[in-house]
Write a structure and sequence with these properties.
about 20% strand; Rossmann fold; alpha/beta; globular; six-stranded parallel beta sheet; about 200 residues; 6 strands
């Protein structure tokens, strides 16, 4: 969906917007196709959001005990989570005081976390989305957000995947439904709010 700087200015405010940093964990960051650009741009967006005083939510893939893990996740992660060292699950960017980290077990922030309750309580309806993987958790969360009356805003140079083709297809799919923009455009708006 084509979005202009004016549209962003009208959408993003301190009171109605939050940032989701989706599954930016060491094990995923180390396997994406555009690590340098992604980490540089995402870091700048996080910093700008903090300067503007906008809420930040981080998510972490958190495995369930083996017996209770979903069969689909077991198939997707054939090697399992138990082979990975603890550092693999650590967040690449460290949250600061007052920011929320959700340990989650699905590809949607709305399932098994208090995200919707928290954002409804705070009057937040616009979601800036960054993270990994575009075609999995980003698209799932964005579509569910749209269906629940939120406005997901995808920052396309701050989402990534280990599969570049899947990432690009996902962006094309989401572009038909919701605003997609770039980090520099979002940072301009956020810097205006920080003044």
């Amino acid at each position: 969906m084509k979005i202009t700087a004016g549209d962003l200015n009208n959408l993003i405010s301190k009171s109605n917007t939050c940032l989701i940093v989706w599954d930016v964990q060491n094990m995923l960051v180390n396997n994406i196709f555009n690590k340098e650009e992604f980490t540089e741009k995402t870091k700048k967006v996080i910093e700008a959001v903090r300067r503007a005083g906008i809420a930040v939510f981080f998510t972490k893939i958190t495995p369930l005990p083996e017996r209770f893990e979903s069969p689909a996740r077991k198939m997707a992660f054939k090697s399992g989570f138990t082979n990975l060292d603890k550092n693999a699950f650590e967040l690449y960017f460290a949250p600061i005081e007052g920011e929320t980290v959700f340990n989650k077990h699905t590809a949607s922030i709305f399932i098994g976390t208090p995200f919707e309750l928290m954002t409804n309580n705070a009057g937040i309806k616009n979601i800036l989305l960054t993270g990994i993987a575009t075609e999995i958790g980003i698209e799932s969360t964005a579509r569910e957000a749209l269906n629940r009356g939120y406005m997901p805003i995808i920052i396309k140079d701050c989402v990534s995947s280990s599969d570049k083709e899947a990432h690009e297809r996902s962006l094309m799919n989401m572009d038909k439904l919701m605003p997609i923009t770039e980090a520099d455009e979002v940072i301009k708006v956020l810097d205006g709010l920080a003044r």
